[in-house]
Amino acid sequence: MRITLQDISKSFGGRDIYSHFSLDIDSGVRLCVCGPNGTGKSTLLRMIAGIEDTDGGKIALPKEARLGYVEQELDAWALETDLLTYVQDVLLDWSAFWREWEEASRAKDSARLATLMETQHTLEQTYGYNPEQRAKKVLSGLGFSEAKWHKKLGELSGGWQERAKLARILTAGADILLLDEPTNHLDIDAIEWLESFLLTFEGVLLFVAHDRTFMDTIATHVLYLGLSKPVFRKTNYSQFLVLQEEYTAQRERERQALQDELARKMEFVERFRAKATKARQASSHQKMAKKLEKELEEYKPEPKRKELRFLWPEAPHSEKTVLAVSELTYRFKDGTTLWPALSFTIYRGMRIALVGHNGSGKSTLLKLLAGVLERSSGNIAPAQQLSLGYYTQHQMETLRPDTTVLGELRRLSDPHTTEEELMSVLGLFLLGESYFDRQIERLSGGEKCRLVLASLFLRRANLLLLDEPTNHLDIESREALCKALQNYTGTLVMVAHDRWLLAESNVETWKLDTSGITVYPSYSAYETAHQAERALEKKEESKGGEIKTVSREEIKRQKREEAEKRNAMYRKCKPLQKAYEDTEKELNAVLEEQASIESTLADSAIYADHARATELLKAFEDCKEKSELLFKKLESLEADLEAARSAYAWRTRRLPSPQAYSGAGTSFWPARKYAAPTSITGNFPAENLSRTRAHGKRLSASFKKNLESQWPRLASGRAYATAIQRWASLCISFMYTLFLGSLAHRKDRPSAGYTKRKPWRFPFLKQIQP
After folding, report:
1. CA angle 146, 169, 443 (to 5 degrees)
2. What is the CA radius of gyration of the chain?
3. What is the pLDDT confidence band of residue 205, given thresholds at 50, 70 and 90?
4. pLDDT category, 753, cuts 50, 70, 90?
5. 329 forms bridges with which residues in the sheet?
6. Of all helices (H) and strands (E), which one includes residue 139?
């Protein structure tokens, strides 16, 4: 099985998309066609499918090869057909075959029966032994519940119709499979199922995708478009980027070497051109230089394309609590609900990703938070200084098709925004002057996405609600959006199915399902738990009748009860955890102040001013007493947290609960960082031993912090000397803490072992008066 592209050419609007391009694609190759939008990826698939003609050259496909390509539009018959019938319509109707078989059997025609047996064998190899079951398996894998199998396609949303087209192609089977953005409108579970399906495909697969994880998993070869000529590599996408970078660097070195050689030749020519004895050599060098100039033209660097690059403006200040949600519910018109009453709080600076299968209500929850939908019950309390930016996955819910690009951005922006600012922002999002007067309905999906992002850029929001922001964006634009979100200083809540974006955005992951919200500290933690849950389900399925199986309803009930326990634990531990973090921040501030005072007291010159020294000593003691109280508070809060976790059978710190291995979520609480002094009263050795331990920990942290802050400055000699002097001062402070810790603290009573107070002297310090 081989596809042959021979010297093909294609142009649009006077611009060559392909020029004398040739390529052979063999069976077993899974070719990822990638590159920026507008470089001809989908055009290549349409030309191979025969939907679009080439301007030159030819495309050869094997005879009788079955071609699978998703149709662009659904006709009237398809829209009026139920889903299961639409998908199974591509399968062979065995009834006619069996009627012919019965006729041959009654006629006892052995030759005809032998022919039918060969036909049956061929058909079974082509369509499988149970094609109807295959259709149902594909529908289930792509996320269609049995309740949707008998719905008409016209009753389904656009995203589900796209899935139905894909299901029809996968069910029919093909020798050559052409997929254009197959991961659009698929949730993570469906994408993973599609990956496993395509990895077992034995024919020729060509696909266009912008999901980087999907591309790396499926592709065996990459065809990159968008450079001066197409680049074909036997690798996946991430490895292709590395190879291309090495290739570009090598060509740059070769170009530089040619330039240097050309400069030497021309220098020789200019130097000896006028000398009769060297004229022949100069002429020879000049000819060589002309050859080098022609060779150098082949090493011209690739012209740089305009790429999306932007950073979100600094988010305006908001209150600590951005959104407080209490007992939130939503009912559809038919009375159905997707989840129980939800209660949660979103704090300033949180970065949250909502995950879950399609239909779990992620977009509905985002619309409720944005105020687009009216809640059935419950409360949503926003911050007073909240500035909201909402991105919907369906751009036409935000944009008006009959307006121009510039006019629409003006409508969506602050009325005080100047015309120059609007034009500058449009240029930043690759919608330059040629787009200003273009109608919205004439824009591509990616251009509409960038226009909506431009409106959010001008909004200067401190809370972003993003619903599938990467749909219709090419991979370069997705990477630019990811970098922008990484540097965003406000609060972020987004729904996305791009696993690379979720992994790179450093988000806390909330899984939304029929049992409510399950919190994971990161996307990797969610992915680990999710894979463990799927492995456990497969293990239970493989056991079959060996053990007593649990019904699906019982498993759902158990998961719902576990989720309710986790949510109860989360609600109980959240305020304790918040108090712990606040106390820890306060303690760090006190310890920093104490370290600063210690550093000042280490300077012998400070004791010349008796009043100043006394004031510093008093401030030092105040910090010390305050830190001890904070230590005790931390210890008490930690005990409360331990008690709350133990009530829900959480046995270890910093580790997920046992339920996490079956898909349950967990919050990772910080372990105890500080130990309170064993005693703050009593005789001198016991007291100072505990004080020395506490001071030792604080000084270690102080040393580490100062080292980290001073290290970049150690390059210069003066900074090095200053740093050495600072370290010496801190060492003196440590000695002072160790030997004189009770000097000012125990004024009212003598210490055991020190019955008489005397001034203390050190060779490097002046006399200290207690």
Report:
1. 100
2. 36
3. very high
4. very low
5. 377
6. helix 131-141
